[in-house]
Design brief:
Elements (H helix, E strand, L loop, with lengths): L5 E6 L4 H16 L2 E8 L9 H23 L9 E7 L2 H11 L5 E5 L6 H6 L2 H8 L4 E4 L10 E5 L10 H11 L2 E7 L12 E4 L4 H9 L4 E6 L4 H6 L3 H8 L4 E5 L5
Parallel strand pairs: 1-2, 1-4, 2-3, 4-5, 6-7, 6-9, 7-8, 9-10
Antiparallel strand pairs: 5-10
Length: 261
Amino acid sequence: MPQIKRILFPTNCSINAQKAFAYTLAVAKTFGASIDVLYVAKPKVDIWAPSVMRFSLLQEEKRNAEKKLDQWLKTFEVHNIPIHKEVEAGYAREIIGIYANEREDIDLIVMGINDEYSLMKIIRGTVVSATIDAANMPVLVVPKGIVFQDIRNMAYVTPLLKNWRAVLPQVQQIATNFAAKLLITHLQGATYEAQEGEEHIDLDDYASALNSLVYNTHLHLLVTMASNRSAMQRLFRYSKAQKMALTSTIPLLVLKEQKVL
């Protein structure tokens, strides 16, 4: 992943986000990248307030959010990594993807995951799932409480797409950059032809069987590809990549069909 020069890290400045940001700092240090730290402040202003008063209150909310972000960042040793701070008012599910896509030089989004995989989240979606759908660049999802480890073993979890090999050269390059062993995993019954030097594994499912593989082979990173989905598909169901992001016990890098690392 030699071309990672700018990382976007969205945060709610919570305790849970601290481990994810420490992980992000380690990634940035590895690749010599800068970090955009984005804090999305949910508006608390009454929509019925007069416009002049509403504007003043929103500005005050933004100033408070900036102070909160400054205090949160002071708890970290950034090791001379360039940090750009940004506060946006709105809702994270919409703002993060918009912010990232408007800045063409962002190479990677790193997100800590705080969402619970509940029925309500399945219906309404989560911040992570919305970002995976909306962002044009790869998204690295870091599970709650994870500590950065050198990546020595990784697996490419192939999507249910015929063109799963489209991003394989990029996945192999990632493995080469980390000097990591690469496994290629498929759902049981998938049709594929292993080429020389490839190690393929069939899985019963992308949930318990995958987590067992992670544990038994000491994996440090999962990689998969997210397909482009219609608005109707986004409304009624999660993709495999989104489900993996919500249930994985180790970091998951989601590559996009239209843009890969």
